[in-house]
Amino acid sequence: MKIAIVYHSKFGHTKVVAECIHAGAAGVEGIDAVLVPTSDLPAHGDHEKDAGWKHLHEATAIIFGCPTFMGTVTADFKQFMDHTGGIWHRQGWRDKLAAGFTNSASLSGDKLHCLDAIMTFACQHSMVWVSQGIFPSGTGDTRINRIGSWTGMMAQSDGDKGPDLTPPV
Questions:
Q1: What would the DSSP string read from start to end of the chain?
Q2: What pLDDT does 143 receive?
Q3: CA–CA gap between residue 33 and residue 99 (Å, rounded)
Q4: 10 Å Cβ neighbour count for 46?
Q5: How much is the average pLDDT of 50-58?
């Protein structure tokens, strides 16, 4: 199974999350995981021949991620979404598994709205959305799903600290 993790990271914090997801997936026998930064995906040209786009087309599952910015996806991630119109038209990602993650400096930051935008995008591509399916810790510590999201993975990074310190991994 091939998993592609396509993400945008404005200051590096979301890249840390993407790398953790990649490490976890790659650590499972039989999984070929690849990181695909949106900055590596050319907007124009042959989507079938470009290495980054090819990873997405060949993947069994695509995990989408970006920071929550102004309550939704970043402009760079939205641009990536917009560049998939031809793929959508031919339903090139139909029945692939899809999941999502987001990160923001605040505990909420309207992360759910961001994940909803990513989920809607995946569903428009006729992908099968996979929820997080992990009970929230409810304790405020750094255990998995401490923010309590079912739609996808939410992370919180202290805005005044660099990606080497936050989010906690």
A1: -EEEEEE--SSSHHHHHHHHHHHHHHTSTT-EEEEEEGGGS-SSS-TTTSHHHHHHHH-SEEEEEEE-BTTB--HHHHHHHHTTHHHHHTTTTTT-EEEEEEEESSS-TTHHHHHHHHHHHHHHTT-EE---------SSSSSTTSS--SSSEEEE--TTS-TTT-S--
A2: 62
A3: 14
A4: 9
A5: 91
